[in-house]
Amino acid sequence: MIEIRIHGRGGQGGVTLAKIIATCRFLHGYSVQAFGLYAAERSGAPLQAFCRYDRQPITNRNLIYEPDHVIVLDATLVGPAITSGLKPNGWILINDPRLPYEFAERFPGYRVATVDATAIARENELGTRSVPIVNTALAGAAARVFEFELESVHEALEHLGFRGSNFTAAEQAHERVVFVEDIDRQGAQATHPATPTARVQGIVDGGGAQRPAIRTGQWATQQPHRRQWTPPCNHVCPAGNDVQGFLQALARRQTDLALETLLRTTPFPSVCGRVCPAPCMESCNRHALDEGVNVRDLERYAGDHGQARLQAQPRLAQRVGIIGSGPAGLTAAYHLALLGYGVTLIEAGDELGGLLRTGIPPYRLPRDVLDREIDRIIGLGVDVRLNSRIERRDLYRLTLEFDAVLVATGLQELRSLDLGAGGDGETVMQGIDFLDRAVRNQIRVDGETVVIVGGGNTAFDAARSALRLGAAGARIVYRRTRQEMPAIDEEIDEALEEGVLCDYLTLPVRIEPMRGGRRKRLICRRMRPGEPDESGRRRPVEVTGSDFAIECDRVLLALGQSPELSIFPEGTVVHDGEDVMGLLETPVYAIGDLASGDGTVAAAIGSGRRAAVAIHYVFTGQEQPGLTPEAQEVIHAKGLRLHLFESQPAHHGMSRPAEERRLDFGEVRATAADPSEAERCLSCGVCNECDRCVTYCPEGVLKRVGHEFSFDYDYCKGCGVCAAECPRGVVVMSRL
Amino acid sequence: MAIEVVTGNHAAGYALSVAAEANRVGRGAACGIYPITPQTEIVEFVARFPFTKGRVIAVESEHSAMGVSIGAAMAGARAFTASSSNGLAYMTENIMVAGYYRLPIVLAAVNRTLGPPWNIWADQGDTLYLRDFPMIQLYCETNQEVLDSTVLAFRLAEDSRILLPVMVIMDAFILSHTQMETDLPEQDLVDRFLPPLNLPHQLRFERPTTVGGLTWPRETLSQRLEIDEAMERVAAAYEEHRAAFEKIFGRDPGGAISAFETEDAEAVLIASGTIASTAREVVRNRRARGEKIGMVKMKMFRPLPGEALLDAMPRATKIGVLDRDYAAGVGGVWWHDLRAAMQGRRDGVLMQDYLTGVCGGDVTPAMLEEVIDDLLDRRSAGKPVWKGIDR
Amino acid sequence: MNVTLETQDPITCCDECLVRPGNTNCGGCGMSVGLIMLDRALKSAGQKCQLVIPACCGIVTAGGYPTTGYSVPVLASTFAASPAFASGVAAVRDLNDEPHQVICWAGDGGTYDIGMAALSAAAERNEHIIYICYDNEIYGNTGGQRSSATPPGARTTTTPVGKQERKKDIMAIMAAHRIPYAATLSIAHPEDFARKLDTALHLEGFRFLLIHSPCPTGWKSEPAESIELVRLAVGSGLFPVYEVLDGWKYRITIKPNGADPLEYYRRQNRFPAAAMDADAVRAEVAGASARLARLAEVFPAG
Question: How does residue A413 score in pLDDT terms, banded at 50, 70 and 90?
């Protein structure tokens, strides 16, 4: 007689395995028995099943105490019970991907075989993901190990009505099972514990109050863990802001915390909250649900309403000179001052702010808002030298005066366009210069028709400023379509509302004078979209014979800017965040638009911050953890459980009516009345303590104390509900 | 003390009520009730009783009636109910729960033929068939005994050494609906006899248990063994409480068995319930004629007082068992159980079964005279003898 | 008693969860979630409870004697009689002016089927007990047989080709008893769940709560998807979430969100695709939803 004990878990099909093996032998003339040890076991609970077969009729009605072989359905069950009473030289067949050698040492005196029946069951889609049914695969392995015909497994499965992939699983296991036969038979322990007979406290004596004795964590085949991701908004933010972090603070109405979170990376939340193109909004995973979170307005809200006290580190000996007080220079000054360095800002103009002040009209960025944020930086103890233009020869002097020099002079070189001899300096001018003069009240364009060439923010700023300076009309010509315009979408909309006209797919060719006055004809040519270029945008192609004329008084060029490198020695190549002149003892860094040419305030902020970090590292050898975002995988919409969120339209904010606002330089958009839009933030990949995992844990073993979550793996059955119910991909399961 | 002429049902209802009322100083009393002929008057009495701290819940079935009483007992109250015949059958699942939960519930049962067919008359089959459950069974002969046994039953059931339900049983109509003089004791006497119940395993927040959950063989075996030990303690405990009862009420509520003229009797009749009265009178007459005949009235069926029975009839060589019941395929339940109790203890005794008054037939002195004649004539025991019907 | 007993020091605690870790319920069991939510509601209301549990998975939860998976007193009742057992316990509680709740915690078999008579009677008597049915639509404890709560189309061991009959409308039956409170609860909507429990915990008389309780073992579904499944049931209108006050005032507390009932069926292997008539299912659900909406409109609660 051969007796086999099967160690399995509820739901794995151990009893059925006993039945399959018994049937294999029965079909070949054996007397057989197969039975389980029935109790109230549940899916996942350890349980035993038995099988015995013999050529003689079987009369034994007892449990099997001294089996010839054992089968283990799950390697997590490997323990002392496995060899209890097992006869010397018996087989231990384990469902596990490891080789049998890894178990052999634990079972001296026994023969060990392993097969990855779970993988086979999954391959053949037997059972569910968390509870694969491995019995048919193990029957195939058992046939090989216990030396009965694989064909009999086929017959048995047919006989029992198991169809489909079950026999494939058996065949695969038969082939893949690995053996260790070479054993020292001395070590076998053939004893099994005696069945206990001690009396147990009765109910009238108060019995029945003990705590559960079962560590149900042993049932688990998988366990939950927490992982943090980088949300796409944080990933794409050129300034390196913790977008998710400040949004979640706002969602909880913790405006001060939101501001503090922003101020860890940017000194310009109120500025960026008005002028940032906000790639975070574009990358927002919420687009897959309804529409992206209006991050820009929320940053503005935090900047305008939050209160934060900044505390600089104790003063250090090193001094840093920063040339240029645009966003990059100011940001570098801000971080370096916070770190304790002596900082001197050297500005060619008569006011701080660079392009923020000269290039962005006040209706988008009111001066008091800008001044407030600059004052916060200067208030950290930053020295300022105004009206100090630095030429190439001055730079060397600065390297002697300072321990490090940052050059943040931005994009001084303006791109131009040859429109022939028909224009003059007053008729054709740079948009940037126009904006600068507008801010200084040095220009009016009353009654004029102004044409602006370009599609970026400067173009729209110039067009809208022209209207405010009395222009009869403002018309933008752009050689591509609206989709390709680099300007902020909302600004385009606002400009159109205010009456700015746009000629898309239009290329200005030349200016021709008109008789009888100052007016000119701007000759333009129609374009059509051609093949995509390397940037992926469709390259505009001229349409021959499509020229037409626009009558105008003035043409403003807003074609973009490029860095002006004349401050450096001839032939210097600049890279963002790298020492430009490595031969000098004093590190000299080019930062901001000068180094990257990106052209956004946010990028300049990021560059300034990174430079501060780099300088700090040069001086101290220390990383500044808060300033360097940890590199983690970015979570995309498919990593979230979007169906757990309710669709809710975004708050788009309030603007003054177009007909009113186009008459003055007062701010167009109002700051949001409340931060409720932040509640739309999905907090992608970052736990925001929504506690759904805690709420739904069927075992009550997932707990949160303060900000700490804990899983009690002693009792976690590994059902996976917590992971399935985590809306943001933080709780994940891993196989044991 | 007021002796009144009342029915057996009234006596039972009165006893249940005053015993329950006595626990007003404890956690009170509660029960579920449900009507069935011929016990309905019991629950009607109980429903009318003005309990100080008690609630009588009229439910939708006997099953639930016992269910309510189990819940009440488990919560620490004095609990009881009453039923009969098919009502007991329907209640059976919960009757056994009361026993296995070790609840001191008193169940007043009126013996009525189990149906079908629809038969409302006396037959002990409806209570005897519950013989395998952990429950003490007391069969009564008079209305007074019904009352006394019911009061005593609470004290016995609630004895911390026992903690088992007690069934107090009477014959349908012959006791249940027959008016006889009965001493209905005052409440204060009952109060003295029945201290407040303190169930050791009542549901408690400070020591939460799951009563009746999954229990493995060894653990269940432990509980069954405790029941067996409690059953073994019943005989002695009963005698204690019987003596206490006599002291307070001035009346013997009757022993587990009552022997009549058995010291030298060679032939003995064994009877229970009201048949015992008839049997005693017939035996008394035959004694007067010089025949060495005795009789034993068995009050207690569970636990079966086999030892006491043997001690009570040292010289008996012929025993006639009067069974008002019929177990299909066996015969009389009393006879079957007593024969087993006798086995190996006393050899050479002839024990014959007489099915008398089964299905509610009247058991007359004449019928019992025939039984005695048959018993005396016998050389060996035979199949059960059916009385009142021609074979 | 002069025998050697295996004992353990008595436990004096009730501040832990009603259902303890180490219970033997399946992974992903909806009943477990329901018990934990019940625990939270009780603690939030500052109340304690005694449980009466008939034969069902809930009594096996306790684990093997002498251990108990519950931290409150539990009385196991016979299958058909939990409301009767609870009535007795509650009566004695009231006689002694004790404040705790007596709660029946029963499966659908013990409620819709074998326990119907005792349930109806206790409701009619307006006993001061809370009766909670965790409805997993199957005799789960015995391995998955049909009950009158099993939905049409579901394959069970006793409906091998899918159940042909409708699911019993237990809420209509309970409402017909004119009890103070009857409500359906979904563990996928914890706030609504908690609010209804809190309502029940502060009302007098018989309160009936029906929880749609996913059973991965019986439904042949992924344990991890348990919550999602019952969420789909609510969203599609298959399990309407509402409450009935005094038997006639209706309030729908979670409205269906237009989810397709077929999606609910597809995710469970208990529903053989062949047995499903998609249009019929959708029509039936739409009809039931419309009827309930009309009731809530004509007889609104509060």
Answer: confident
Q: What is the pLDDT of residues B269-314, one digit of tens each?
A: 999 999 999 999 999 999 999 999 999 999 999 999 999 999 999 9
Nearest to C55 by CA among C141, C143, C150: C141
Q: Using CB atoms and an 8 Å cut-off, which of residues 215-244 of chain B contact chain A?
A: 216, 218-219, 222-223, 225-226
List domains and CATH numbers for chain A. Answer: 2-187 (3.40.920.10), 222-229+685-735 (3.30.70.20), 234-309+656-677 (no CATH), 319-412+563-627 (3.50.50.60), 417-561 (3.50.50.60)
pTM: 0.88
Domain around C63: 30-298
Q: Is residue A243 helix, strand or coil?
A: helix
Res. A564: pLDDT tops 60: yes
Residue contact C81–B28, C-beta within 8 A: no
CATH of B257-386, picked from 3.40.50.920, 3.10.180.10, 3.40.980.10, 3.20.20.140, is 3.40.50.920
Handedness of CA B310, B312, B314, B316 (dihedral sign): negative
User: What DSSP designation does C113 have?
Assistant: I
For chain A, positions 1-20, list CB contacts with chain C under 8 A: 10-11
Query: What pLDDT does residue A192 have?
Result: 79
Contact C78 B205 (CB under 8 A): no
Give the mean model confidence (pLDDT) for residues B338-355. 91
Looking at residue C7, its pLDDT comes to 37
Q: What is the pLDDT of residues A143-157, one digit of tens each?
A: 999 999 999 999 999
**What pLDDT shows up at residue C12?**
33
What pLDDT, on the 0 to 100 scale, is given for residue C9?
36
DSSP character string of C168-226: P-HHHHHHTTT-SEEEEEETT-HHHHHHHHHHHHT--S-EEEEEE---HHHHT--GGGH
Q: Give the per-residue pLDDT at A411.
A: 84
Instruction: Give the bridge partners for A520, in sequence order.
Output: A513, A552
Residues in C touching A10 (Cβ below 8 Å): 26
Superfamily of domain B2-249: Thiamin diphosphate (ThDP)-binding fold, Pyr/PP domains (3.40.50.970)
Give the amino acid at C14.
C
- Asked whether the beta carbons of residue C72 and residue B205 sit closer than 8 angstroms, the reply is yes
Query: Closest approach of chain B CAs to the CA of A715, in angstroms?
Result: 20
* Contact across the interface for C95 and B77, Cβ inside 8 Å: yes
Going by C-beta distance under 8 Å and a sequence separation of 6 or more, which residues neighbour residue A403? A318, A319, A320, A586, A619
- Could A197 and B218 be called an inter-chain contact, meaning their C-beta atoms sit closer than 8 Å? yes
pLDDT in 10s for each residue of chain C, 302 residues:
333 434 333 333 335 899 999 888 999 999 999 999 999 999 999 999 999 999 999 999 888 899 999 999 999 999 999 999 999 999 999 999 999 999 999 999 999 999 999 999 999 999 999 999 999 999 988 889 999 999 999 999 999 989 999 999 999 999 999 999 999 999 999 999 999 999 999 999 999 999 999 999 899 999 999 999 999 999 999 999 999 999 999 999 999 999 999 999 999 989 987 667 889 889 999 999 999 999 999 999 97
Res A629 pLDDT > 60: no
Rounded to 5 degrees, φ, ψ at B110 are: -110, 120
- Mutation for A interface: B161, B198, B209, most A CBs within 10 A: B209
Q: Which residue's entry shows tokens 């339900």?
A: B165
Cβ contact (<8 Å) for A207 and C65? yes
Radius of gyration in angstroms for the set of CA atoms belonging to chain A, rounded to a whole number: 38
Q: Into how many domains does chain C fold?
A: 1
Minimal Cβ distance to B219: which of A200, A206, A209: A200
Which uninterrupted H or E stretch holds A173? helix A166-176
CATH of the domain at C191: 3.40.50.970
